[in-house]
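To assess whether ligand presence alters the predicted conformation, the chain was also submitted together with iron/sulfur cluster. Input:
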Amino acid sequence: MPKFPKAARTALANTQQRRNLQHATHTIRAKRAAVVGELPHWEALRAAGAQAKDEALTHLGDYLEQLEANLTARGAVVHWARDAAEANRIVRDIVTSKDTDEVVKVKSMATQEIELNEALEEAGIHAWETDLAELIVQLGHDRPSHILVPAIHRNRSEIREIFRREMAKVGRPAPDDLTAEPARLAEAARLHLREKFLRAKVAVSGANFAIADTGTLVVVESEGNGRMCLTLPETLISVVGIEKVLPTWDDLGPMLQLLPRSSTGERMNPYTTMWTGVHDGDGPREVHVVLLDNGRSHVLEDELGRQALRCIRCSACLNVCPVYERTGGHAYGSVYPGPIGAVLNPQLRGTASDVDKSLPYASSLCGACFDACPVRINIPELLVELRGKVVEEAGPTPEAAAMKATAWLLSDPKRLTLAQKAATAAGRVLGKRTIRSVPGLGAWTNARDVPTPPTETFRQWWAREHESEGGER
Ligand code: SF4
């Protein structure tokens, strides 16, 4: 994957994708603004959400142990995974032990992060995505472009083509007379998925929240496909990032108001499924919970950076970001795109690769993401901090040397006056030419030109204009 500026250039050239993204982000943004505006206590809710997550993160070890104890007491099996490889191995071994070669999946960012589908495929196990947008991405052999709406970059006729071309290869084909009507597309997906739901022995999910004091896992969704996965198969495996823990049942209240309003612009999400271990005669017979670290402990060590772990993956920051709106998610080179991806990926994966080094710069720092974030993550602050880290790690560069020289110059008025004199002299020599025409400076001014230095400084101008009032000051 190329670094962000290069990948963004390719994305910007795709005008159809830009149109699709603009339409989708503006629609969700308007819906969100309307429902958030209905709540006069929105700021208090945001503060409560941030506080609950901070409490969990500050005492994460204690709450995780409490979660494990409560899950185990209610019949679930808890596994701990340090990294993606360990988590994938645990899931694969459980699936294989159930004598099946397929699983149905609830939409889950954690399983995308660890590339579970690919790991299962290598072991000969097919993982069927059941969320409509994830299904479109999977059938289209594509990558998700958005946290909440992974197929945001596709329009209806593209989806129709994907269904007609691909569904028959992996199950029930799309109807011959399929149109691009949303209702017809949804019907085709429903019929295609139904046979998979009824056949599957094992389901794999993530969790939006994991409540420590009850051992309850929570999944919120819009379509009901998740609930089919969470209730029908005999075995349920949930891969849960350790930062998903909430201390108490009461903390769920603010979250269930913040999340749907911020993500889909709804007052309440249509389906909220909660499960606490195993219950006789109801739901899966076996429940496994894989608690995933995969770099989160490392993020937790950084007092400023750890606020990124508050993220509830609502995607509001993506929908308001002017950079995301134009480039889409693929340019970020990760399952976490947009402003939260720009701060989370370099923290989870480090800044060794060109992609991760470039991500903190994938922002205009306009601050819209902070305003939109329901758990008050100060993304611009984190971006600036990470930029500093990238610069420090890069060691001496021409840019760093130029900044150092500028600091030296500006720290002494005499030096500054001398430099101004030199600049005005250069301005007189260059006359009406522009900087772009100066040999050696062409590359720097590729995207915009810069005027030549003025032929007199502000102080000189002031002195000349106000001679009668007492000369230079
Ligand atoms: S950073 Fe905030 S706005 Fe962005 S996805 Fe996470 S919770 Fe939502």
